[in-house]
Amino acid sequence: MNGDVDPAVKALEARQDEILRKLYELKAAVEGLAKTVTTPDADLDVTVSSSLSSQSSSCAIFKGTTNLDALLGEDLGALRDIVINANPAQPPLTLLVLHGLLCQRYRVLSTVHVHSSVSSVPPQLLSCLGPKHADSYARHMFHLGFTLIWKDVPKLEMKFSVCNMCPIEGEANVARFLFKLLAPYPSDPALATLVDSWVDTGFYQLADGSTKERAAVLRALNSALGRGPWLSGLEFSLADIACYCCLLQNGSASSIAANVQGWMKSCENLGHFGPAKLLLK
Amino acid sequence: MTKEKVNGATEEEQQAQSKKALKKQQKEAEKAAKKAEKQAKLAAEQQSADEDDFAKDRYGLSAMVQSQQKLDRALVRVQDLTAEKVDQLIWLRSRVHTSRAKGKQCFLVLRQQQFNVQALVAVGDRASKQMVKFAANITKESIVDVEAMVRKVEQKIESCSQQDVELHIERIFVISQAEPRLPLQLEDAVRPDGEGEEEGRATVNQDTRLDNRVIDLRTTTSQAIFRLQSGVCQLFRDTLTKKGFVEIQTPKIISAASEGGANVFTVSYFKSSAYLAQSPQLYKQMCICADFDKVFCVGPVFRAEDSNTHRHLTEFVGLDIEMAFNYHYHEVIDSITDTMVQIFKGLRDNFQTEIQTVNKQFPSEPFKFLEPTLRLEYTEAVAMLHEAGVEMGDEDDLSTPNEKLLGRLVKEKYDTDFYVLDKYPLAVRPFYTMPDPNNPKYSNSYDMFMRGEEILSGAQRVHDAQLLSERAHHHQIDLEKIKSYIDSFRFGAPPHGGGGIGLERVCMLYLGLHNVRQTSMFPRDPKRLTP
Where does the AIMP2 thioredoxin-like domain lie (chain A) (predicted)? Predict the structure, then answer.
């Protein structure tokens, strides 16, 4: 062995350095994320999250890939427009949050209409999907259409392909449909059922239930959140989105337990619930 | 022997004859007696009538109104006969819709445009038997002046528009008498078709109506339809004026066919010929080139199309819009659709009475729309039709059945009866349509639909003389014939676009009616030139 280093060794060392560097980055990222879960006041460090993947930061929270063509049917060269009819008296907060997430994942053409069955709606309901996209004159340039119609309907409904699909009724069911455009449900059936169960609890008991029911749900939430950072365990899911929105819709309960408070702060730190909070102002 | 027999026979005959004669005489005498009796009775009645008719001055046939005098008399409108007017003595002028005697009373229904009220002449201290008889004999549709007390009724009168009151007539004069045999009965003309079939009662078919249009237009349904139509025109003008549009009048006698040679009426023009305008298209555009920026016009449009369909007329009222835009023709679409939405809202909010009146005879679903208006692209429409099993090419025009199917699909998905279809294929549009900048197969043109039927065809126009000549050439149009049109764009022309709707068709579709002749006062089609 002389002073010259074998180029092969140099290359190996370079690779080792590279791997170590990546490991440190990953460690920092995980620590950053862990902070947002365990420390209510920490905001998601944008510099950390941007190194996680090529996709945008918030979508990285959903693992697994989805394929619009597989879910919605073959792209026939025209805008695939999802139509949601909602009553202005009960704005669907969960769907607004999901819309925000969809916009980060796909090119979404969002429009809001008022149906002739309603004489007028407050201005915040007209702007709830955000500003008009600059390219909205060319519908075919978008992956997905999200058309929200404020209408005098007894129950929220979604229509997509009138020839092949019957309408989907109820905010819970539409939320499930939209969520699956972002990420698949957990493959473990028990976990998937747990998510669904929390979604139903949110819509039927937290949003629509009596004071007693709501108090019971809050207790259940508190104990579930003692076992893990999110409602279905380690991963953020539709259960968290739905329960957070339903809780928000009902104003503040008299007292919210510690775990639930922490969880609510974590949800807010993710930054997706802006549209929902804006509407409630 | 024979003589005697003959004599005897004659005698018998004579006897028989005299018997017959006697009988005959008796009969005649009876007859004469009866006649005399009757005459005496009549005379007696007449006498008593003359003696007893204390109400002689409170009814009768008025002398023809030739402006003999200026009466300062306030006439109340039937639609104002509500509970508020109870116990007031009022005068009104209306038509006699029906009159029916029942013993010592006569019930009348007095009608004024969309409104009617029950009225009653009863023998009492104000009215005599003769007056009641007179009232019962007034022919239908006669115009009468009536002085009456407004009285409250205990039970609502369902069959009339004024349900809370009835009139107790004190004076009734016929101002204009109608001939007894009407060519059609108004009750029949207002009867819904289904009801007519079920109960075996008559309805009136369209040709009879149109032949006797003056009477048919008196029905409550017709009154409502044309009031609504007036509303459409009014809302169109008001909305556009508010948006800064200027109303223009364009010539209807023109030297060259604007839309294409085939469907144009020729008129003799002194020593040569001229044509009746198929649309104000060319003149609208010239106004834009003349810096009027945003214009609209309301006027007749003449199409010599030998189409005998439910939605074609040879003459109709066109409501046309043209405007210069800044950067994108969607500015024009937005303006037009907003105008349409304002019209729909205006009708929804201010013409419910008329809409309900029409629905009584012609039931239909209320008209639904979205604000802002739904705009779909042609490719989306083709995709929707493909999904529904229709076979058509990407650049094919939409056939009428496909338009209707598309309308149903859009209604099912978006629950709207009004939408815009944007980006039509270039091949199926007129030569002056601006092609799409990115895809030569398509164009900056659009159609608008109500209840699945087309009501407007519009586009960004070619405002460049060079391109216009090329496009005309491509469509094999003789450039000489459209020289003045092309010349308008040679000295600076702003980018512009527009479209036009047919007033009759819009009213028909808004109300959910099925024949455009119902919304045209005196319709013109290949088979009808009068009234």
Answer: 78-169
